[in-house]
Amino acid sequence: MTVVAPNLSSPGLLPDLPALVSLSGSLLLAHISLPSKDALFALSLFPYLGFLWFLTRSRQAPRLALIGFYTTLVFVGVTIPAGIYARVVYQQALANVDWLHGSAEVFLTLANILIVLGFRQAVLDQRARNRETS
Amino acid sequence: MHVLSIPTWIIHISSVIEWTAAIWLIWLYADLSGNRAWRLLSLAMLPALVSAMCACTWHFFDNTPTLEWLVTLQASTTVLGNVTLMVAAWVLWKNRQPELKP
Q1: Mind listing the pLDDT tens digit for each residue in B43-94?
Q2: 3-class SS at B89?
């Protein structure tokens, strides 16, 4: 956001009104602006922890899928030091340092593979069970 | 689309395909197990899919700073998606069937 400084050295006696309006508008916007993406990503962790808590307590999820949902936390945990490393060493966002970006994202791919395998097995087992009872 | 190397693209696209497959498998499992709460979980996984699309679109356009709003949208749908996941897991826990363990 660009903050326009009021032009107080304008030739008239009155300060530059449009510039003042623009400044106050910018300050107001700064106060009511939406939370930053980093704050949102950090915030998103809490409902995810709640999700894991209820899913574990429900004892309904296939074991491998549950491990997969927990592995997502490993991905989140890896992106934090990887992001700091990208900033400090490359002065870049993580998404712009390909090898770090890919190495971090591979944990999400791994987590999702476990979720798929877990539910695939659950579907196959349930099909077999339904066939037995019918 | 050259900021991401081919292997990094493959990693991204596989994650999205896997998440979609998981949604589909959980939908099937809801029918097979007779536990309708699973259907809710599969629907609750959709906002995260939108989030992933935002990220991939931003990467496709080489992480252009003018498209940073896509990252904010990604972060917002991540918050929303994790809340919907939590609600679905809460329903699963509420309606838990004691001995049914796959």
Answers
A1: 999 999 999 999 999 999 999 999 999 999 999 999 999 999 999 999 999 9
A2: helix
Question: What value of ipTM does the predicted structure carry?
Answer: 0.93
- Strand locations in chain A, DSSP E? none
Q: What pLDDT digit, counting tens, does each position of A79-113 carry?
A: 999 999 999 999 999 999 999 999 999 999 999 99
Residues 6+ apart with CB under 8 A from B80: B47
Chain B residue numbers touching A60 (CB-CB < 8 A): 35, 37-38, 92-93, 96-97, 100-101
Global pTM reads 0.83
Sign of CA dihedral B51, A104, B61, A84: positive
Q: Which residues of chain B make contact with A92, given a CB cutoff of 8 A?
A: none
Using CB atoms and an 8 Å cut-off, which of residues 69-108 of chain A contact chain B?
93, 95-96, 98, 101-102, 105-106, 108
Q: How many C-alpha atoms does B30 have within 13 Å on its Cβ side?
A: 16
Q: Who's near A82: CB < 8 A, 6+ residues apart?
A: A94, A100, A101, A103, A104
